[in-house]
Amino acid sequence: xxxxxxxxxxxxxxxxxxxxxxxxxxxxxxxxxxxxxxxxxxxxxxxxxxxxxxxxxxxxxxxxxxxxxxxxxxxxxxxxxxxxxxxxxxxxxxxxxxxxxxxxxxxxxxxxxxxxxxxxxxxxxxxxxxxxxxxxxxxxxxxxxxxxxxxxxxxxxxxxxxxxxxxxxxxxxxxxxxxxxxxxxxxxxxxxxxxxxxxxxxxxxxxxxxxxxxxxxxxxxxxxxxxxxxxxxxxxxxxxxxxxxxxxxxxxxxxxxxxxxxxxxxxxxxxxxxxxxxxxxxxxxxxxxxxxxxxxxxxxxxxxxxxx
Length: 308
What we know:
This protein is mostly helical and 308 residues long. The chain is 78% helix and 0% strand.
């Protein structure tokens, strides 16, 4: 059974279970045992715990809709995916669950390289995290949207989002020095990439140096973030026209990241190394993640492969 069929079956099973649970408890001897999820919902109803039963079924529905939406996005059927994400948002039992579903909807638009609608739904998640409040997650929501917008070519929008994200993140109460350094690194990383895309190599290099300084200022932060530096230098080199340096640097970055795989494939193409590029596009096209790197890399790689 395909993932899409599984998600659809789970959704149908959940809906059916809600109907069955309202009927008298009769089970012929030859009947098969109810699935665990169905049985749990029925038990709650029979115990008279109707509020808990409703929350349970809403959770099952939301999970099924989210799962179906993710699979449909990966299949390139994004309009269908958003029908499910919309239902997941409507079925959310808590504000936090709704924010998670809104974030998933944002990623669905990211699979279409749609900056404006990605921002629309990430802003909804941003608003929720502001009520908790969780300034770090607020910053992350805006950073996520900004990353989509860079690759969509909306550079000014991306820059504004990155700066707003940093501002929100730095408002975290009792923020640690490592967290301050992290926001500095992330912002300089973003500004360097933006400058490279704007064909401003000197500006890009200044921000690369500032990102390096932020890493060096906080060994604690750098333990987890060092791997993102060769991604930065490779990205800047690629968009500055130096494919050889880009490839050498990107090979030091996370090799399991589909976005890195696409950047490396582009570098190989510029160097006339078609076979290596195709192999990397195949890897990127096979990603099953539902995040900004995958949202850009999977459709991009599949389009590249379709022309071969």
